[in-house]
Amino acid sequence: MAGFFKKLKQRIFYEKSDQKPSIRPGDIPDGNAAIPKFTLPPRDEAPQQAERDAYFVQIGLDFGTSFTKVVCRDIMIDKPWVYMPDYPCDPELPFLISSTVCFNDGRFSHPKRLDGAYTSTSLVHVKMALQCVGAADTTNKHLDGYRALVPEGLDLSTFVEASCIYLLAGIMGEVKGAIRSRFTGSVEGDQIHVNMAVPVASADDDRVGELFERVLRLSWSMADEMTGHPECLLQEVIDSIARHEANAASESVKEICFIYPEVSANVQGFIRSRSSQPGLYLFCDTGAGTVDQSLFQFSRKNSGDEYLIYLSAQVLPIGSCRIEELALEYSPEQGWKALEEFRRFKESGANDPHLQKARYAIGNELEKRTNQTIALGKKKLTSPKSINELRVIFGGGGHCTDPYKIGVMKQFDSTIFRNELIAQRRRAEPNFDRGMPDLRTEFNLKPGQERWSRRLSVAYGLSFAKIDLAAFRLPKDVSTPSEDEIVKKRAVTAHAPTKDDC
């Protein structure tokens, strides 16, 4: 048994120089009202032992625009489990953790309920705000709420970064505590690592990728201090960041914290399934704030290792929360209370004319932007004709038919594709959509929990040890082929029939 763990340690920590992966970090009512502690169903856990071997647990942290999800994996036995917070914001989806931070009278706090997604003191869409800061897009509307609450004299980027670190550090502190409680005592060699996803388009921008790495490492370093999101002053968070800067920059923390493209994480289950086929794919991930699109080639080497080459990617600010935001703009109502009401209407499926108008507008925008994503990717194909074999994968908790599926699938009738080849495909396969794998068996989900699978797919993919994650190349690393590299259809010379042809 000792030899097994020695080999596993060598495999995980790259003690053999020829085992280093090709993946590189960065290539990628009242909201605070108390609610009863959620009682979790019994979990299928191995019995605890008085003496045990060192554990290695990989945290898959899906930092979402509206909600964060976490899946942990015991690497030694390859067993994942869903992390459930003590106070879930939605009893029907008890793994959801609000990605909103509250800021009132100079103090940070964290909401524990689904109600109150929009309040006068809410800092919403923290992830998108961080992306804007990283890209130096300081006029972006997603920073409006931060500009309204940032204390006088404080730099906006510092405020956004502190908000994000407070959020993530509090979450990781609770997750680390839950992991430690599953095992008896402390054993030398116990390891916890964390993988966090960023959109491909964000990872493709070095400034944004580096900022996400910095925030993740600082959040990890401050996790024990911020466990459970204690209410604290903004200045206390800023001071804590300063104290932990050196540790966050250390090689040991860099080894623990890993950034990975969101689409790659999302499709881990898909590419590992026996039914997955190499080919050209458009992944469309609809979250609360954004639609993350990536066009990529999936290949499988002779060794069995999977590889993803991203040809193009965009982050579109038209996620599901944009539906209620546009509905508010179209209506005579104003303020965050009306916005919260439109959110409830949307979630309940109410047939509101303002929501319908918003869906139509988003569908039109998605149609145009998806056309761009596919066209940009097509330019990098050495065989442009292969675009006609494109398959689509939909993901994300905000995905729905109208407007997201409709807007994307309209592309197959555009001039990007050859109509006769698409018509031929449709006769053989009327649906070009490839569904995501069902994770119900993986997590022993019960009847009625089917929709958990789509919401957990990113966190599930991130829960694999980073050496086991599929390698990738980002769009910036894939050049447009030259004329000599493009495979062209050979011209056929017409000739008059001879007597031998007759």
Could you explain how this protein is built, in words?
It is a single chain. This protein folds into 2 domains: 54-262, Nucleotidyltransferase, domain 5, CATH 3.30.420; 275-436, Nucleotidyltransferase, domain 5 (2-Layer Sandwich), CATH 3.30.420.40. Helix content is 37%, strand content 17%. It has 17 helices and 15 strands. The model is unreliable at 1-44 and 490-502 (pLDDT under 50).
Secondary structure layout plus pairing:
Blueprint: H1 2-13, E1 56-63, E2 67-74, E3 79-82, E4 97-98, E5 101-104, E6 107-109, E7 122-123, H2 126-134, H3 144-149, H4 156-181, E8 191-198, H5 200-203, H6 206-221, E9 232-233, H7 234-248, H8 251-256, E10 257-261, H9 262-266, H10 268-272, E11 279-286, E12 291-300, E13 306-316, H11 321-330, H12 336-348, H13 353-378, E14 391-395, H14 401-409, H15 419-428, H16 440-443, H17 452-462, E15 471-473
Parallel strand pairs: 1-8, 8-10, 11-14, 13-15
Antiparallel strand pairs: 1-2, 2-3, 2-4, 5-6, 5-7, 6-9, 11-12, 12-13
